[in-house]
Amino acid sequence: MSGAAEPGLDWTGRELAVEVGPVAHGGHCVARHEGRVVFVRHALPGEQVLARVTEDRGGSFCRADAVSVLVASPDRVEPPCPHARPGGCGGCDWQHATPQAQRELKAAVVAEQLARLGDRPDLPVTVEPVPGGPLGWRTRVRFAVDAGGTVGLHRHRSHDIEPVEHCPLATESVGQLGVTLQRWPGAQAVEVIASSGGDLALVVTPRAGADVAVPPLAAATEPAVLSQPGRGGRATRVRGHRAVRERALGRIFRVGAAGFWQVHPAAAETLAAAVVRALRPQAGDSVLDLYAGAGLFAGALAPLVPGGRIVAVESDRGAAGDAVYNLRDLAVPVSVEIGQVGHVLDSVQGGFDLVVLDPPRAGAGARVVGQIAARRPRAVAYVACDPASFARDIATFAGHGLRLVGVRAFDLFPMTHHVECVGLLEPERPA
């Protein structure tokens, strides 16, 4: 049987014997059955598996879990976490693959996205390991809480919660608080932060109209506690400090406990070094740092451009305030502008020699790309957490005469499908 699926077809719950094809963006592999694409989790390329369909909305594809492996890949290993299974926690995608195989899968995804969406099929992609192993690296973990107060993590593509007592990706400091061993009635989520500067903090999101009493915790160090009304809402301090200390570049960065900082201990240093290496800053350069957060990249570049200038743009007021504080003592003054990047760039004057941008998962978008290109930079370093958005923006940059000339990728999220890239763009040279 071949061709498009019948209208209204629903395979949910059906088990299919399939041969697994290549990896796809999102933590699954592609198989085909009776003319339809089946996106299979918990499988590896080249395997033969029995896949149970978990989601089918009709049309040309459905989603499934590999519930039995008939012919295994040589890269398959036993997952170290009992919750990394079909129907279990949705946080990890590749615990059933060796670390080397995980990096190869991620490299294939980045290369495919750049070829298909970014029109760069010729660029080689290697995902580089970072210091530390595949477990015990996550310094921030956001746990979900069910209506009864039980703590866990969300299942894949679901609001359902998988109760867990321990997440093996978390650092020892995250685990020592014992958050998962307590009940949290009235809470919707509890985020645990164990900063590289030695601070502990909790960001508690209460359910609508509920009060949350923080239960006794196991750590000898009392954590700071913040309350946040919802994702994106302004966190208020309950007790302790509102911010935590993060170590990078030989400095201490102040970061709001509810704000953004890379979750892998090696991430900040790794990405900053990659950006500096890509841009090759020189004395007197003017630098534009977009989506600047707490000021990591401005802090890395400022000592290398004596006599130059740096303009950092950040939309979150808390993060922008942290950036002002963190960059206050640099020899090259940094002007921190608060607002949406596209709006701020309408008013920032002058050209820039170098640009670094670290946009959210959705990417920078056509407007911002055009505004960057209009400044005629010598080089642009694009830090990307989503290969598809990155590739789409790369294609837009090419339309403005800035071409991707190299990309590095880093395994900052072992066991998951996530990968961080740093791309270097330069003006196209006349033929």
Q: Care to describe what's here?
A:
The structure is a single chain. The protein has 431 residues and is of the alpha/beta class. It folds into three domains: 15-76, Beta Barrel (OB fold (Dihydrolipoamide Acetyltransferase, E2P)), CATH 2.40.50.140; 108-131 and 257-427, Vaccinia Virus protein VP39 (Rossmann fold), CATH 3.40.50; 140-247. Helix content is 18%, strand content 30%. It has helices at 99-116, 172-176, 267-279, 296-301, 317-326, 341-345, 366-374, 387-399; strands at 15-19, 23-24, 28-33, 36-41, 48-55, 61-71, 127-128, 140-145, 151-154, 161-163, 187-194, 200-206, 224-227, 236-239, 243-248, 251-256, 286-290, 309-314, 334-338, 354-357, 379-384, 402-410, 420-427. The protein has an eight-stranded mixed sheet, with helices on both faces. Helix 1 runs parallel beside helix 8 (387-399). The longest helix is centred in the N-terminal third of the chain and has 18 residues, at 99-116. The radius of gyration is 23 Å and the shape is globular. It starts with 14 loop residues before the first strand and ends with a strand. The model is unreliable at 1-5 (pLDDT under 50).
What is the global morphology?
globular
Biggest sheet: strands side by side, in what order? 7-22-23-21-20-17-18-19
Q: Uncertain segments of ≥5 residues (pLDDT<50)? A: 1-5
Structural class: alpha/beta
User: For the residues shown, what is the average pLDDT?
Assistant: 95
The fold-level CATH name of the largest domain is Rossmann fold
**Total beta-strand segments:** 23
Q: What would CATH call the homologous superfamily of the largest domain?
A: Vaccinia Virus protein VP39
Number of DSSP helical runs: 8
In percent, how much strand structure appears in the residues? 25-35%
Gyration radius from CA atoms, angstroms: 23 Å
Write the CATH architecture name of the largest domain: 3-Layer(aba) Sandwich
Helix content percent band: 10-25%
